[in-house]
């Protein structure tokens, strides 16, 4: 469904070149739930931005549904985002002036649906996240978890092929995070492909596949999935303690 | 999407009321000043003759002596007026001048009043398409055999006869009885192109009398007179045969051929007069000017006025530049929201359209307020500076023109801010919100 081949992204300034992604290769199949982890600055968000056509890349190829979309125009990429991709952000990114229904309606407006169809989809999406009764409320009247559920409803309203979630639980407490994660799992079980960037190892482990990005390249740890890594972790901690500098 | 963008625009305006008000104020003041000066300019620059403009011609004669002024005269002498009447080429032709008299009715209690009068020929009314409420012009024969008949305007008819059909009734001019033969409707040509002597925006006369009565009643000229010759004019009759220019002469020529024939006739007339010892100058000639050329010749629109319009447009540009800055600040503040909209499928064009519609709404509000400013400024010009109402009347076209120019100019000012915001890179704002 989604395939990136030798994708590189270099940020250039007058003085330095930063390789955010280098020869990045990844394939995600239809219906998968992929968690992307990695240290800060490893290129997770850059990958997500490129996957969501929010940013271009320096070289390589990006195939979506078998079509090379490496050099699509801005208009075309906006249309692809609107039809095929749903976004969920850490900061929810709801439009504060619009009520819940209007927020969920935004992508449908750009898709050109008529009022009746928009209303049907908005209600359906808000029901899916359990907030249909509060559709006239403003985002500021909701808790963080509820706002994230509205953001998920907005992403789902256009019935996208896959969801890109960037730290969807990053701003939520653990209870809310678990609720949102459960919702994402339900959505995935219903057939939507999900790629989720997260720092939370527990959440990442709930995904079908874990991908770690290190220095702009993919380290696929799916081979280790299900293995007990506690011994390795303990050994690693011992080494760190041994190497700790001692004050003289 | 248009109404959706309008809704978003309205919400955005409400969200920043003071900033929006500042922008509306900036554009409205610019529009108000531009519309005020442009309105006065347009009123001055109007050609009220309309489609008749190219058929009506003012006649001029370079009849003055040597070592006098170098320009062709705007008016002609009485003797030339009488001579020009001999031509059979024009479809219609009239001579006229402005005079005045004390007006009374048969009612002994009626307080006499001084009124402006136009002494002219019967064809004046058809030539200038003057509408009648009652009656008609006096008969053409009266242009030769004088009779005491008058045409009055609706306002005087109201004052003298309470607006009733006064045809056949009598009024007194300088204590002489005249019979009313016609009442014309409110007819106010602005500029008053047929006689620009007393100011192009002066009021029309309320009474029209046959020119043929002038030698009998000795109506003095109340307009400007010009004379190049030192003549000892002892009485009215001598004045009629003097070289003093005080009459206006208009002809109706319906075809190009007719114009050429009449011009040739005029040159022949000049030659004839030279043969009689008049028209001494080498460049003596006769000319005809259609209405537009006549307005240009008389410089009805002063150069200062054009400069004023230019300056007011410059002021509008300054207002627009200010507005551009305010719009830029306002729009860029909303870059995070645009980032979200772009991420969930809005194209650059859709974002551009959304913001341009918001700009147009501000422009429309500016246009409405600008009209209000213009109306107030024009009222002030009338009340404080005694500028004629003909000049300070807000032209109907301005009601459409002002909002249109406001919208178009604000759209121009808003293009750059809208273009900047539509090029927002969504990824920059999505993480940082």
From TrEMBL, chain A:
It holds the Pfam family ABC_tran. GO terms for molecular function: ATP binding. The keyword ATP-binding applies. Signal peptide: none annotated. Keywords: ATP-binding, Nucleotide-binding, Transport. Residues 2-241 form the ABC transporter domain. PANTHER family: ABC TRANSPORTER ATP-BINDING PROTEIN YTRE, IMPORT ATP-BINDING PROTEIN. This is ABC transporter ATP-binding protein. It comes from Shewanella surugensis.
Automatic annotation (TrEMBL), chain B:
It is found in: Cell membrane. This is ABC transporter permease. Residues 311-426 form the ABC3 transporter permease C-terminal domain. It is a multi-pass membrane protein. The lineage of its organism: Bacteria, Pseudomonadati, Pseudomonadota, Gammaproteobacteria, Alteromonadales. It comes from Shewanella surugensis. Residues 20-268 form the MacB-like periplasmic core domain. The chain crosses the membrane at residues 21-41, 307-332, 352-376, 396-419. Keywords: Cell membrane, Membrane, Transmembrane, Transmembrane helix. InterPro entries: ABC3_permease_C (IPR003838), MacB_PCD (IPR025857), Macrolide_Exporter_MacB (IPR050250).
């Amino acid at each position: 469904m989604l395939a990136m081949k030798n994708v590189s992204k270099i940020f250039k300034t007058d003085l330095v070149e930063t390789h955010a992604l280098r020869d990045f290769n990844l394939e995600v199949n239809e219906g998968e739930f992929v968690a992307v982890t990695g240290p800060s600055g490893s290129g997770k968000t850059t990958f997500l931005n490129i996957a969501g056509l929010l940013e271009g890349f320096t070289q390589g190829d990006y195939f979506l549904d078998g079509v090379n979309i490496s050099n699509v125009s801005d208009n075309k990429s906006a249309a692809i985002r609107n039809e095929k991709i749903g976004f969920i952000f850490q900061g929810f990114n709801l439009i504060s002036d619009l009520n819940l229904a209007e927020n969920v309606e935004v992508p449908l407006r750009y898709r050109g649906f008529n009022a009746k169809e928009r209303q049907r989809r908005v209600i359906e999406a808000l029901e899916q996240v359990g907030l249909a009764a509060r559709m006239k409320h403003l985002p500021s009247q909701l808790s963080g978890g509820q706002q994230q559920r509205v953001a998920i409803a907005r992403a789902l309203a256009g019935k996208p092929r896959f969801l890109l979630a960037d730290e969807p639980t990053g701003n939520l407490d653990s209870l809310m995070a678990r609720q949102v994660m459960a919702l994402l799992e339900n959505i995935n079980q219903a057939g939507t492909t999900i790629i989720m960037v997260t720092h939370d190892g527990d959440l990442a482990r709930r995904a079908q596949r874990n991908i770690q990005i290190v220095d702009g390249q993919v380290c696929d740890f799916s081979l280790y999935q299900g293995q007990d890594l506690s011994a390795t972790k303990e050994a690693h901690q011992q080494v760190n303690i041994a190497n700790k500098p001692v004050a003289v | 999407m248009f109404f959706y963008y309008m809704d978003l625009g309205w919400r955005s305006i409400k969200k920043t009321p003071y900033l929006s008000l500042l922008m509306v104020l900036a554009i409205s003041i610019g529009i108000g000043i531009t519309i005020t000066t442009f309105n006065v300019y347009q009123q001055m620059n109007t050609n009220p003759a309309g489609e008749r403009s190219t058929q009506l011609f003012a006649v001029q004669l370079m009849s003055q002596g040597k070592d006098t002024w170098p320009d062709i005269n705007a008016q002609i002498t009485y003797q030339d007026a009488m001579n020009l009447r001999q031509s059979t080429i024009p479809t219609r032709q009239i001579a006229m001048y402005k005079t005045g008299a004390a007006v009374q009715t048969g009612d002994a209690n009626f307080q006499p009043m001084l009124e402006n009068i136009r002494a002219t020929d019967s064809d004046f009314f058809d030539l200038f398409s003057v509408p009648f409420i009652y009656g008609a012009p006096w008969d053409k024969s009266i242009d030769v055999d004088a009779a005491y008949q008058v045409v009055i305007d609706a306002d005087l008819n109201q004052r003298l006869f309470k607006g009733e059909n006064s045809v056949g009734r009598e009024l007194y001019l300088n204590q002489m009885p005249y019979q009313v033969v016609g009442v014309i409707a409110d007819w106010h040509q602005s500029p008053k192109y047929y006689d620009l002597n007393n100011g192009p925006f002066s009021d029309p006369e309320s009474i029209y009398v046959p020119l043929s009565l002038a030698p009998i009643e000795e109506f003095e000229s109340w307009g400007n007179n010009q004379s190049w010759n030192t003549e000892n004019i002892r009485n009215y009759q001598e004045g009629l045969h003097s070289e003093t220019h005080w009459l206006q002469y208009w002809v109706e020529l319906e075809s190009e051929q007719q114009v050429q024939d009449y011009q040739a006739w005029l040159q022949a007339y000049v030659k004839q007069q030279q043969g009689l010892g008049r028209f001494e100058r080498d460049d003596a000639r006769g000319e005809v000017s259609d209405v537009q050329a006549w307005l240009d010749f008389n410089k009805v629109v002063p150069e200062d006025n054009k400069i004023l319009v230019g300056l007011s447009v410059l002021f509008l540009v300054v207002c627009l530049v200010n507005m551009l800055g305010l719009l830029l600040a306002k729009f860029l503040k909303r870059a995070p929201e645009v980032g979200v909209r772009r991420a969930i499928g809005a194209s650059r064009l859709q974002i551009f359209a959304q913001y341009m519609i918001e700009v147009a709404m501000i422009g429309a509000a500016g246009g409405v307020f600008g009209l209000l400013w213009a109306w107030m400024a024009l009222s002030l010009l009338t009340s404080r500076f005694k500028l004629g109402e003909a000049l300070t009347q807000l032209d109907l076209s301005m009601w459409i023109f002002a909002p249109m120019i406001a919208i178009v100019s604000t759209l121009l000012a808003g293009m750059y801010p809208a273009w900047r915001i539509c090029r927002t890179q969504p990824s920059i704002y999505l993480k940082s919100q």
